[in-house]
Each structure stands twice: as structure tokens, then as C-alpha cells.
Amino acid sequence: xxxxxxxxxxxxxxxxxxxxxxxxxxxxxxxxxxxxxxxxxxxxxxxxxxxxxxxxxxxxxxxxxxxxxxxxxxxxxxxxxxxxxxxxxxxxxxxxxxxxxxxxxxxxxxxxxxxxxxxxxxxxxxxxxxxxxxxxxxxxxxxxxxxxxxxxxxxxxxxxxxxxxxxxxxxxxxxxxxxxxxxxxxxxxxxxxxxxxxxxxxxxxxxxxxxxxxxxxxxxxxxxxxxxxxxxxxxxxxxxxxxxxxxxxxxxxxxxxxxxxxxxxxxxxxxxxxxxxxxxxxxxxxxxxxxxxxxxxxxxxxxxxxxxxxxxxxxxxxxxxxxxxxxxxxxxxxxxxxxxxxxxxxxxxxxxxxxxxxxxxxxxxxxxxxxxxxxxxxxxxxxxxxxxxxxxxxxxxxxxxxxxxxxxxxxxxxxxxxxxxxxxxxxxxxxxxxxxxxxxxxxxxxxxxxxxxxxxxxxxxxxxxxxxxxxxxxxxxxxxxxxxxxxxxxxxxxxxxxxxxxxxxxxxx
Amino acid sequence: xxxxxxxxxxxxxxxxxxxxxxxxxxxxxxxxxxxxxxxxxxxxxxxxxxxxxxxxxxxxxxxxxxxxxxxxxxxxxxxxxxxxxxxxxxxxxxxxxxxxxxxxxxxxxxxxxxxxxxxxxxxxxxxxxxxxxxxxxxxxxxxxxxxxxxxxxxxxxxxxxxxxxxxxxxxxxxxxxxxxxxxxxxxxxxxxxxxxxxxxxxxxxxxxxxxxxxxxxxxxxxxxxxxxxxxxxxxxxxxxxxxxxxxxxxxxxxxxxxxxxxxxxxxxxxxxxxxxxxxxxxxxxxxxxxxxxxxxxxxxxxxxxxxxxxxxxxxxxxxxxxxxxxxxxxxxxxxxxxxxxxxxxxxxxxxxxxxxxxxxxxxxxxxxxxxxxxxxxxxxxxxxxxxxxxxxxxxxxxxxxxxxxxxxxxxxxxxxxxxxxxxxxxxxxxxxxxxxxxxxxxxxxxxxxxxxxxxxxxxxxxxxxxxxxxxxxxxxxxxxxxxxxxxxxxxxxxxxxxxxxxxxxxxxx
Lengths: 509, 509
Description:
The structure is a homodimer.
Chain A: H1 2-39, H2 46-64, H3 67-79, H4 88-105, H5 108-131, H6 134-153, H7 163-169, H8 175-198, H9 213-227, E1 236-238, E2 244-248, E3 251-256, H10 263-282, H11 298-312, H12 316-329, H13 331-334, H14 339-346, H15 363-379, H16 387-399, H17 415-418, H18 426-445, H19 449-453, H20 459-468, H21 478-486, H22 493-507
Parallel strand pairs in A: 1-3
Antiparallel strand pairs in A: 2-3
């Protein structure tokens, strides 16, 4: 009888995997079409391409919300009642159920309406930003806010209207858990930034010289190859905005852009996107094209991109190994620039207006402003009309700089013009915090890691991250991962200690 | 009342277009995934990619055979009974009906079985060809032949079992129409080849020097830009085997490969694939993603690739304009090589073993051998076991050369290992014949075309081809197109006259 039962169980479970694989393959196909759109597609391909991507996404959504999938999950949950809850199979069912319940709550009409609205908003924004024209996007943002609130209302019972939107990207996190963390972080950062600004500014003129594109490209790829990025399972191409995209366990690609008059942009964007890719490539191969086969949250993803970009890639030890190589590639630009000058240049802290150009320390203040604005807009304690003014005031308060126009203020980020208001930004700073916490845990387990980094060796760190974080995919939520690794909740202290140690040394604080 | 009827008609007709667009978009998405697979995909992406492409093709097939589409066509045919049969709308319904009837006759099981079999055959062939191992593929070819016969039997009532397979690629053509044409062509070619071979051989050593890749690439792209290939609606990338692929009316791409020790390969493959692309890009934009939105047949497609590659691109007049430019790019290689030597080199006729490397004259003999073998195998007058021996004998008879092994004989072409036996080859020679006939018609309409080509101008020819052939897409079959253009059937004479004139001059016959 046992055999009969097992066969039966297996077949129901395998039906789940078959269905999930189809959804995943349709989404991956859409991702290939999007990648091509950003990398190689000639302009004439745009209209049909948008339609083709929309069709694939619609077919994936239909399958993800198929009532037959719900019935299958009902049956499976009964059959799996006594399975080990920590088994992959139980996790698969749990995550599949979560995705299904989330998907069916959002009516197809709403999905289509929201997609059409953001597609239009994005088009208008691409014109409005260079034209510094907030009035052009204001009614669109008002509609986005209304749609974002409607989205939240598909998940009644929330404490804060941002919570369902945060759950989209950082499941398990809420305004109630994030706000105190961010308040504490701001209280720590403000005096740190003030102390740094009071010191002589770092000289980063060495970065602003002519650096030929091909040499920049090759150097970045050399480093990520050392990191362990496998070019048999990925590649790097050029796009306007860098990104990482996963097509399968054997194909996770990154992109970058190169400025020949500034060497730090392509290099650190390559390290950043490679961090995302190392995460995806490290997921257990048997999770591929299943509900578990992706990184678990925006926060954990960003923890890896920022760990490999900043914690590793901007550390002094790292450049003790790589700087002589970089000097050899760019002898006229860097031959006479001492290591310390270079390390200070790539870690220069300076309050500024643009998030994506911000340094490691002030970056979080940009994020916190946006998170607070999202909460205020959703709560109704702020209006879209007030947004440009609020933005200016918060920048003046937090960073001591005030944007002279909306182009360099509220219009700078694509997020609110390509997606909802809510849940869009917290992942970036959660990522910094988690990077600090994970790196500290890795160092406790393997105190030799910094010395290895100083020799251009990353195996111990990479293996530790893969075993403790990457391979689990979506099996554990952010909080569960942190609990498994540190035995406790998300904590700020390791990140604070990291920043204090690093910037005290750099700025003689 | 008229309004009511029209609205109603329109809505049924538009439902047809909606359904056709979905099938087309799924096939285009599969084509993007295939293009990426050949151009940029890292090796690790292969297993998931095959599955993703198969899923998209399966979804397209399901939609193309949906019984609801059949009912819709029934309704539309009644409603459209009095529409102008030459209208686009009537053609759309006619071609949609043809595609539907064709698709529903082939059981889904058979489609899957055939796809799995050819995928396996192809894998085995990639090993067997370099290993010169016909026995490894023999049982697979026997199965391919059996499946090809089963395919034919889904279309009972044929005169010859190759006819349903030929209809796949060259609708309206049959063994009964092709055989006499090919017999006549062979009777013409055999003495021509003998006469050429009796003359001193052309010296093509100038082509076999070192030609840097980037310069070859740029020169080929310059020429096709002059042809009218629009890089806003296409691009060229590198692949192992050159091809053209259509994703939409605004995105038809080509690929090529470059040998630095032989300048004629990349260049003429670029001109060849550009010919295919000019055809697709010239189709009426309103046909995009409809049943009419592709080239009408393998023969007409090949007529365009070979017209732009050979009739135009290997003509003396063409090189009167371009040769000084080519010499300027490659002064050490060609600076001292006279124009006549170069033109004779790129038109060198020499019986050889490999079809894809054959010259314009002997090429057709390679094709006719394969066509006759396909017919014989399907008829049962030859067996797979006999194939290597038959191949050798036919090469000795037709071309006076005999392959020393199967690698350079029966194993050389991918076709029988990636598709059916039957219908695979006739299009190449039909294309040559049609190129001759179409070019003669264009010259009758515009006698200035050769003079324009000698000045690097192609507008008159391109416009004539677009108006008379390209824009119609699949609205007319091959025979209907020829009838519209020449007022008669497919004729060999213009192609024979073209070959006689060109090669008499080149070889002083």
C-alpha cells in the first residue's frame, strides 16, 4: 500500500512542478525578450516586442491563477500534512500556495489596467524628466497612488497600506518592522555624515580621466571571474541601465554601461550586478523553474549585490591585490596615484542629490526619504501635489542639499513611473543592513576571509554565502534566513560597526 | 442595415486577426529565443532553452489547431462569400483556412514525436559527421523516412509521396511540375559545366589571403545598407551558420560568419541573408502578425537571397563600382589584383563535393541530386542503406567528382537530420530559376537597372521587387506571383540566358 500511496503522492506533487515549470518558462521567455529589447533590438522592433512580452506575461498569469492549480494545492496540502515542514517538498507547496493566493486576489482586469497605466506613465516620464516637468506626470502619479491603494485593498487586514506592497518584494517585512530600523539607522548616519563632511574632502580626480572602454570592460570581467561568476552560465552586455536577469539555472546575465571619463561607474556596476548573479547562480539547481528558484527578497538580493560591490569591492584589502593590476592596465592614469588615494577616491562620501550616484554612507538617507514618502502618500498624510516641496525639504533636512529642480529631485527615479508607490525602495537599505550582518557572520565562521580577499581569493566567502543563503532560493524568508544564520532577528549593529570601522580609518575620525 | 452587417463582419474578421496575431507572437517569441541561442546564449542555458522554445511552439500549435478557429473560419467564409477574391481580407481568410486545415491534419502526438526524433537525430549527426559514421545515423534516417511517409499520408490523394512535403515549403509545386524543370535544367547545365571545365581555371588565390574580420564585417554591412537594408529594422550578428529571422515587420535580423583567410565567405553570405531580409522587410506592414505576413515560399525566398547575392552581387557591373572601395580597404591584398581577375575569382566554376561551397553553376546539380534522392526514398525505389553508394554514383555521374567518404558525401547537409526527407532542397534551385525570371522581368520594366547597379544604386530594382513580390507576402503562391509578373508559368529560359551570357563572357566560351 505504501508504494501505491507514494506513487500517488508523487504524481500530484509532480503535477505541481509541471505547472510551475510552465509558468516559469513563460516568464523566462518574457525575460529573454526584455533582455533583447534592452541590449540588441533595433528600434523598429519596439511595438511588436511590447505586445509579445505582454502576451507571454498574460499567459503566465492565466496559468498562475488557474483554479485547477488551487484544487491541486488543496489536495497536495492534505497529502503532505505529515511531511517534514523543512523538506524541499513542503517548502515548494508552501511557496506555491503563497504565490497562488497572492495572484488570485488581484483581478486580471486590474493587472491589465495597471500594466497599461505604468507603460504610459513610463513613456511620459522619459520626456518629463529631462524637461523638468512635474505637472506632466502629476495626474499620472495620482492615478498610480490610487491604483497602489487599490492593490493594497486586495489584501484587507493590513496594519499599514504599504504592507501588502512591501510584501511583494520583501515578504515578512512591514512598515512596523522597517520604520524603527530605519529611524535607528538615520540616527546613526546623521552624525557620521557630519563628522565625515567636517574632515578634508577625498580627492577623486584620479577617477575622472580618460579610461578606454575595452580596458574597463575587460578589467571588470576579470574581477567577477575571480569572484566565481561563471561565464559558461552567464554573460555581460551593454545597456542604458545595468541589470541582472535570470533565464534559468544555467543562464543568469548581467549588463553594465561604460563612461570613458569616469572609471568607477562600469567597474562597480559590474561588481554589483555580478553579486545579484552569484546569488541566482548559487540557488540549488533542482529548484530551477520551480516556485523556489529565485532569490527570496529584494533585501537579500541587494545584500549580495552590495556585499560584492562595496563590502568586498571597495575594501582596502581588495585593492591591495587588484590596484597594481589596475595600474598596469592604466599606467598613465594611475601609475603615480598611491593606493590610499585611490581607495579614498572610490569611497568618497559627499551628500548629493542623485541616489544612484550616492556613496555607500549617504545612500541610505536617499532611500529612507523615499520610503517615508511612500508611507505618507499611502497613508494620506501627504499628497502628490506636495511631493516636489516635501522632497526638497527632506533632502535639506537629511542631507543638507536641496535640489534646484525636480529633474534632480522627485523625477529622478524610474520606480514610481514603472510600478506602484509602495514597496519600491526599502530593499536597498535592508540590503545594506543585511550585507553587514551576513558578512559579520561569515567572518565569525571564517576569520581568514579578509586575508583571502587581500590575495584575490573569494572561494571561502563565496562558498559560505552559497551554502547559507544562495542555495535556499525562496525556501526561507528574509527573517528566517537571518534567524538560521545568526540565531536572532535582523540587527543593525554589524552594519554600523562595519561603517564606523571603515570610515573612521578612511577619514581619520 | 448595411452598417449593421459591416460591423458584424468586421468583428468576426477581427477575431480572426486577433487569433492569428497570438499564434504569430508566440512563434516570434520562440524565434527570439532561438536567435539568442545561436548568437549570445552561454552554454549553460541550453537545456532550459530547448524546453522554453518547445513550450512556445506547443502553445502556438494549440492555438493554430483550436476547433474554435475552424468554426470562426466557417462563419467568415459564409460572410465573405461575395468579397472581392483579390482583396487582402479574402486572401487572409484563404491563407488562414489553408494553414488551419494543414495543421489539424497532423496529430499533436505526431508533432511531438517528430520533434523529439529530429532533436535526437540532430545531436547524433553532429557527432557522426566529423566521425564519418553513417552507420550511427542509418537507423535514425530510416525512422525519419518512415515518419516522413506518415506525414505524407495525413494528406491522402497525392500523386507522389513527396508532394505533401513539398507543399510545406513550396505550395503549389509538385514532383510532377518540378521534375521536368530540373531535368531540362540538368540537360542545359551538363554541357555548360563541361565547356567551362575545358577552359583554363579561374585563379582565385587573391581571395585566400588574410582579411581582418572587422574590415570584412564593415564592408559587407556597407553594401547591404546601399541595397536598402534598414539597420533601424534589423541587425547582423555572428553565428556558426548564417540565417535570417523575422520577429516582426520592424525587426528582421541576419547573421553571418567570418573566415579571416577567405574574403568571399562572410561577404556573400551577408548579401545572401540580406536578400532574405529585404523580402521580409518589404512585406506590407499591415500584414504583420497575420497569416499573410511572411514570404510566400522557399523558392521565392531563395530567389531573393540569390538575386542579391549572385545576380547583383557577383556581377561585373556591381564590382566596377565596389571594387575600388574594396581595394581601398584591403590595399595589400587586392591593390595589384585587376578587376577582371577578382570578378573571375568570385565566379570561379569548379565541380566539387560540398553544396554550400559550390559555385553558382554547379550548385544546382547538388540540389537536383538531393531532390531525386528524396523522391526515390519516399517512392521506395531506393533505401537508406543504399544512400551512401547512390550518393557517390550520382556525384560521379553529375559532377564528375566522387566523395572519398560520407562526411563529404551523404552526411554533409543538416536537413535530413533536423527535418523530414522530402521538400527540403527543391527551393534552392527553384530560387535560382525564379531569380533569373524575376530579374529579366525587372529589366524589361526598367532597362536602366544594370547601369544603376554599376553606380552602386539599387533603388529601382529594390522598388520593383518590393512592389511586385515583397509587399504581397503570402497573398499569392509562387505560381500566382510568376503569372502576375510575367503573364505565364515558371520558365527556365531567362535563367539559362543569364548563365549563358555571364559565363560565356567570364570563360570566353
